[in-house]
Amino acid sequence: MLQTVLVLGCLLLPRLAHADDLASPQNVRVFDTPNDGGGSLTVVWDKAAGETKDGRYQVLLHQPSAADPKVIAEFAANSRYVKDAKIPWWTRSVPNTNHFITIRTGKGLELKDGTLYGVTVVAVSGEHRAPAATVQATPEPNWFNWNQINNLAIVIIFVLIVFGSIHVAKTKDIFLRRIAGLDAVDEAIGRATELGKPILYLTGAGDMSEPSTVAAAVILGRVAKRVAAYETDLLVPHRDPIVMAVCQEITKQSYLEAGKPDVFKEDSNFFITTDQFSYTAAVDGIMLRKKPAANFFMGSYFAESLLLTETGASTGAIQIAGTDSDHQLPFFVTTCDYTLIGEELYAASAYLSREPIQLGTLRGQDIGKACILGTIAVGTAVATVAVLFGVDLSPIIDLMRDLK
Amino acid sequence: MTFLRRQLPLFITFATGILFAAQYYVPHPDSELMLTTTTKWLQIIGGFALVLGVTSLFHLHAVKIRRQEAGWGYSFVLYAGMLGTIVIGLWHNGKETTEGVTTAFGWIYTYMMVPLQGTMFAILAFFIASAAYRSFRARSREAAVLLIAAVIVMMGRVPLGEHLIPLSGDVTQWILNVLNAAVRRAILIGISLGAIALSLKIIFGVERAYLGGGKE
Q: Which residues of B are less than 8 Å from A335 in CB distance?
């Protein structure tokens, strides 16, 4: 009998001792989540000694409208630390080892700005629970997102670089490497003039809010000026009526600048449809019927890119494409004579005009690119050294990660 | 006049450019409201601009029909299709189904628009084949590299290819994850910087060609 009691005692004692040891979460704080649009609270508390995945934490929210608190989250005790949160180092107000959870408006939960909420964090181990004292906070919206201050700093630095480069470009010559696709513009227009055939210019699928469409419209101005000088026909079918209206003005101005306003045709820019494949079918039809001698595909494109360029290739036209749609680049490269890849589309305006201001902007872009490549190289080197030699370089790696 | 054509648009561009660039850094609901309201206004303006587009379309094809230019029959089909769809659409209040029954407007969409769009999209398969054939003729060193890379990737992406050349699967992954991803990211960095630079040029009035050219 005594033996049985002793055995049972040995089995039960660790469990009872464990239940007694279960400490409530320490130093629990709740505050309005900084740098957000409101409707969110952040809860932090100290890391306890000996936290394992077997223990758990439960976070309960006391809403003014509900009698009982609502369980917001339950997770392993050795998880959800500040260091795991996607918060840059410069806005972290608590140590990296603290536990961290954000309660925000979502499915089945609404946190109203200006309303006081209570939060209780409970340590759970099996059937045992050790709650901390309930703490309260009010969610509020913020007027500035300090998490993005790195982005703002980089933008300001880039703006200064660009304007510095423009200033330099006004006094010094800037070397510009040859871009075969843009050198071929004159060749294409000349060929069309010799053959007495029109030139087809597409501005892509985007609207005027897309930089690539603006770039395409700017290049159209340069192309139209040369087309006007040769008195060649220009066809510019559009998918967006606003782009059409803008391009009409650009083309008209180009003809005026070329001294050929009488050659300008109001309907050289025309609208077809906003529908992707209807537009493609219509442009393919124009290619097959009018057989333009030169096709320009500038701007952003989707699945229609190959349908357009392959039809153009079948008519024997000289084709020049320029796009920032990286997923369509292979199609343009395989079917067009020349392709402006990515940033070359944005460089085209400077290349064709050779204005110092435009060239200075290009130089600024190159300096910005060099800075990014330098940062990538340093980050890669630091991460490699950390892995190879087992050195803790996490502060530098975290800094690079936050800077991205 | 120059003020209305030049200075005023440039000032509006500068002010709105700075305002909406700053909006990215302001998470307050008022800031979000400003963005969504402006987006709605843009959609409304876009709706009115469609009138411009349709007018252009009608005018262009009316001239073709009047002059009986080559292919004027297509213009006639366009007129018939467009006017017919508008009339039927108005007749059915723009509804594709009424009490579960497909209207004539819905029928046009389901049995004319969708198959026609599908047909255009399906042509892509043949065009990919013909474009690939022309590209893979190893006429230059670059084309030869393209051909070799394409053959490896094609073999690595189909079960039979990987069965015949077991190494092709790993090599394919390496080509896609290392070579392809690195080049793609490099292009994307260039594109992003180019787009930012162009946006800056537009906001600060350095690039004015979109206003209709001219340097004044």
A: 131, 134-135
> B213: closest CA among A204, A170, A185, A224?
A224
Q: Which residue of A has its CA nearest to B206?
A: A357
Instruction: Give yes or no for residue B1 having a pLDDT over 70.
Output: no
Flag whether pLDDT at A19 surpasses 70: no
Residues B83 and B140 in one domain: no
Structure tokens at A245: 């209206």
**Rounded to an integer, what distance in angstroms lies between the CA atom of residue A7 and that of residue A361?**
83
């628009």: which residue's tokens? Answer: B113
Its CATH architecture, for the domain A177-353, is 3-Layer(aba) Sandwich (3.40)
At residue B132, the pLDDT reads 84
In chain A, residues with a C-beta closer than 8 Å to the C-beta of B124 are 303, 306-307
Whether the CB-CB separation of A256 and B215 falls below 8 Å is answered with: no
**Single residue among B91, B122, B154 that ends a domain in this structure:** B91
A277, A278, A286, A373: best to mutate for the B interface, most B CBs within 10 A: A277
Give me the domain span that covers residue B46. 1-91
Scanning A264-293 for CB atoms below 8 A from B yields 267, 269-278, 280-281, 285, 289
Average pLDDT for A371-399: 89
Task: Please check whether residue B193 lies inside any domain of the structure.
Answer: yes
Instruction: Indicate whether this complex's ipTM tops 0.85.
Output: yes
Total number of domains in chain B:
2
Please check whether residue A394 touches B, CB under 8 A: no
Residue B122 lies in a domain: no
Q: What is the pLDDT of residues B160-181, one digit of tens each?
A: 998 999 999 999 999 999 999 9
Helix (H) or strand (E) segment spanning residue B171: helix B168-174
Report domain extents, chain A: 21-137, 146-163+358-403, 177-353
**Does this chain's domain A21-137 share its CATH topology with A177-353?**
no
Instruction: For residues A217 and B213, give the distance between their C-alpha atoms in angstroms, rounded to a whole number.
Output: 10
Q: Which two tokens stand for residue A162?
A: 């660009």
- What is residue B155's predicted lDDT score, i.e. its pLDDT? 93
Work out the pLDDT band at A35, boundaries 50, 70, 90. Answer: very high
What beta strand segments (E) does A186-328 contain? 199-202, 234-238, 269-271, 294-298, 318-323
B9 shares its domain with B76: yes
Residue B112 resides in a domain: no
According to DSSP, the β-strands at A294-298 and A199-202 are parallel
What is the pLDDT, as a whole number, of residue A357? 85
Burial of A45 (0-12, 13-18, 19+ CB in 10 A): buried
Question: What confidence score (pLDDT) does residue A53 get?
Answer: 87
Q: Among A241, A278, A307, select the one facing B52 at the smallest CB separation.
A: A241
Third-level CATH fold of A21-137:
Immunoglobulin-like (2.60.40)
